[in-house]
Amino acid sequence: MPSQEIKDKYELVVGLEVHVQLLTKSKMYASDSTEFGNLPNTNISVITLGHPGTLPKVNKRAVEFAMKLGLACNSEITRTNIFARKNYFYPDLPKGYQLTQDKNPVCVGGIVPITLEKSGVKREIELTRIHMEEDAGKSMHLAGEVDTLVDYNRAGVPLLEIVTEPCIRASEEAYQFMAEIRKLVRYLDICDGNMEEGSMRCDANISIRLKGETALGKKVEVKNMNSFRNVARAIEHEFERQIELMEKGETIISETRTFDATTGLTAGMRTKEDLNDYRYFPEPDLSPVVISEDWLERISESMPSLPRELHDRFVNDFGLPEYDANVLTDSKEIALYFEELCGETKNYKAASNWMMGPVKSYLNELTLHIEDFAVRPKHLASLIALIDEGKVNFSVASQKIYPEMIKDPSKTPLEIAQKLNLIQESDEGSLKPIVESVLAENEAKVAEYRSGKKGLLGMFMGQVMKKSKGKADPKVANKILTELLED
């Protein structure tokens, strides 16, 4: 492993290619089902398999999903979209070519803002393009078997490929970019973002150069990464591996490599030519798809609130810390629930604490979705109001009232508190006798307090809470205690 001093001489240059599988019910150019988990080779037809005489047809919903992602990334939307054949031969490609976009991608340029967690630094990752294409099938190399099995169910499933400029300079930037893309596609409801199921995949093009140089070095493409963390690990390993080669005076080979998550190492698969000859040519069986002004406007008007917009609103309008805003916008449904909650209460920080604490703990413990959460924002806001008004404390609210709200969401927090006799006693006239009796029972401790042992105040408070069965308002009780002890 090169030393930090040697690593500091070099600059990492990374460009990512992210494939997102679209949540359409049918394939990109055929009506076959896209349902995941079906028996192998059941979601296929003569069109998917490219039989002679069959004609493809573009999936309108897939085009609309592409437009949504482009608008979310501030890309320029291409109005006349022509599809192309990308010719290569591989067992999982039934037609012997892939239908994609070549010279005119549906989205050109664009940016994806990211925030680095460690430093808080904000950056904009520049996009080269987003284009529509179909997925290939899946080859399965079973342990101990000589033959390779091929499942064509995935062949033809709609994909968007998001290609960045070679502008990423650290593995953390790649990690945060992937996380932001997953947020976007989930907020837009165009992809579930599950890397484990292959519905979001990433290839990383990695090269290095001496700091100050402008020419790009020989790039290595790393494939087969099934998590954000593995993308970051592969980049870190390649950075060090390529530096070692450069320091030894050896040549970096432009090749495709695979990443082993167990060892954290990459291994060569095949060398890459300077330019892959895919013999692109316009698909003769598909007419251009023209995106009209009206169509684009309709899609633009249907756009939901995006994670960055909600994040900025939570920070600027609700006064939340960056950390809270990041956690709350990680999930679209959590963010929208919180936004509705803030329409019912002005104590935004308390609302955030409830969402990140008791609510998320409950959902995680039972592996539930926020849509399965029985307590509506209006009732949760009422519980926050009970605390703010001094009628109950947080401990009583979270441990006694909140569980009852989950059991019976039709009852208000006040009804539950009254039924369980949990409303705090805030009347000084009612609390003073309780405080006086506690002090009378602990004359020796009172003397110690007055002689300088101020830490005994907590003991007195504990006795007051015990005598009042937890119903004494801590603020009022503390005030009366202090006045009597200092008298």
Question: Could you characterize the architecture of this molecule?
Answer:
The chain is an alpha+beta fold. It has 16 helices and 17 strands. It has helices spanning 4-7, 60-72, 171-187, 228-247, 293-301, 307-316, 322-328, 332-342, 348-365, 377-388, 394-407, 413-419, 428-441, 443-450, 457-467, 474-486; strands spanning 10-21, 76-77, 80-81, 84-87, 97-100, 107-108, 111-115, 122-134, 138-140, 149-151, 158-164, 200-210, 220-225, 255-260, 265-271, 281-282, 289-290. Strands 1, 2, 6, 7, 8, 11, 12, 13, 14 and 15 form a 10-stranded mixed beta sheet that branches. A 3-stranded antiparallel beta sheet has the order 5-4-16, with no helix packed on it. Helix 13 (428-441) packs across helix 16. The model has no long low-confidence stretch (mean pLDDT 91).
Oligomer: single chain
Identify low-pLDDT runs: none
* Record field, number of beta strands: 17
Shape: elongated
Q: Determine Rg (CA atoms, Å).
A: 30 Å
DSSP strand content: 15-25%
Number of helices: 16
| Gap from first CA to last CA | 70 Å
- Average the pLDDT over all residues and give the rounded result: 91
Percentage of residues in helical conformation: 25-40%
Which structural class is indicated by helix and strand composition? alpha+beta
Largest pleated sheet = 10 strands, mixed
Keywords: ATP-binding, Ligase, Nucleotide-binding, Protein biosynthesis
Pfam families: GatB_N (PF02934), GatB_Yqey (PF02637)
InterPro entries: Asn/Gln-tRNA_amidoTrfase_suB/E, Asn/Gln-tRNA_Trfase_suB/E_cat, Asn/Gln_amidotransferase, Asn/Gln_tRNA_amidoTrase-B-like, GatB, GatB_C_1, GatB_Yqey_C_2, Gln-tRNA_amidoTrfase_suB_CS
EC number: 6.3.5.-
